[in-house]
Amino acid sequence: MNRHPKALALVGSARKHGNTSRLVDEVLRGFVELGGSAEKVYLSDYSIRHCLGCPCYVWKPKRPCIQTDDLAKLGNLMEPAQLILISTPIYWYGPSGLFKNFLDRWIGLPTSVFEKSHVAAVLTMQDTTPDTAGPTEEMLRRSFTGGAWITYEGSLLASGLHHTPDAITSHPQQLDEGYQFGRSLAEKLR
Amino acid sequence: MNQPIRVLGIVGSPRRGGNTERLVDDVLRGSQSVGAEIGKIALSDHRVESCLGCLTCYPEGRDRCANHDDAMAAITQRMKEADVWVLGTPVYCYGPTGLFKTFLDRWICFLPEVYENTAVASVIPLNRATLRAEPTLTMLKTTCQSFGLHYLAGLVAPDLLHVADLDRHPEYRVQAAELGRLLPVGITSLSSIGGVS
After folding, report:
1. HSE on the CB side for A6, CA within 13 Å?
2. Rounded CA gap, A163 and A99, in Å?
């Protein structure tokens, strides 16, 4: 419990002022209103190479990932946060490649980065069929549940967004759902 | 048939010579044994940047990405020349690898001539149980549907984690070769291959 929980939002869309980023802003607004603090970063500002599939998962004790990119920097930002708010648009029934490269690399981060962390997700898409987000929701749910360190708080989906970056501004209800999602996350973590 | 069927393997594992690539190779050898022409691209050998979502290419497609002058143009050309794509990715975090997904996102640029009359098979190795391949398989199948590609069959191969784990599962290699032999047949009689895998 913490009266002023910290959130780190990681935007998994390459569009900085796109729908994903705007919806994340609403979640953070709700979160901060209930006493939390928040920081937002764009994955596209960081160099994130893809996981090389070398066996870091068998090394005991754990060794740092051999890639020399910005993942450690992101890990340092994630470590003090109680809430890690991940986000991605749906591209071809899955997360963006940018986001997936990032997610694949969590295996190489020190466990201290996630200890007692809560993870929640924001998903956006043009499609109106909920099934379109199904594989991504399933992928995230399965990735973040069952582990010893992370509590998964679920995902918020905004659908039916035209592909223009500001489409969500004409969906006040979806923005409000983001805001309420942020409030509920802050309430849980306080 | 006058022209041999052209089968192109695309490996989305970062490991060269790992389980994914070996199984894709088995599929390709199977196809070659029945007269197909084969080729292979290991995505890890190429620079493929992530889609910026600018949508300059959407929805008509475009001959080149407006942002990235990377290997995707050459890869696209080879995909256009093939009749069948064999897409291989291991399951990482219940999805395709970031390497593969980054490549898949770039399909948005494809002009119809790249994918018209093309068939697809997939090879999905994973650690532990088959169930965990579902999100990956659904992503691949539904994406193929969106393009009107003929998704023929997929080989889901559980219990493969380390590089040499395939040695414990010779049955997958047999299945992969069988899949490869059926692919050229699948092109000419799509309906008859419905029950495969």
Report:
1. 10
2. 18
How many angstroms away from the CA of B47 is the closest CA of chain A? 11
CB A9 within 8 A of CB A39: yes
Does the distance separating the beta carbons of B132 and A51 come in below 8 Å? no
Rg of chain A over Cα atoms, rounded to whole angstroms, equals 16
Q: State the residue for tokens 């920097």.
A: A73
**A118: domain range?**
6-189
ipTM score assigned to the predicted complex:
0.96
Inter-chain CB pairs, A–B, below 8 Å: 124
> Is the residue at A181 inside a domain?
yes
Alpha-carbon span A105 to A100, nearest angstrom: 9
The answer to whether B132 faces chain A, any CB pair under 8 Å, is yes
pTM of the model: 0.95
Q: Please calculate the CA angle A106-B127-B181 and round it to the nearest 5 degrees.
A: 125
A139 occurs within a structural domain: yes
Confirm whether A1 is domain-assigned.
no
Task: Give a yes or no: residue A146 inside a domain.
Answer: yes
Burial of A156-179, coded b for 16+ CB within 10 Å and e otherwise, reads bbbbebeeebebbeebeebbebbb
The total of structural domains in chain A comes to 1
CATH number at residue A103: 3.40.50.360
Under the banding of pLDDT at 50, 70 and 90, the label for residue B196 is very low
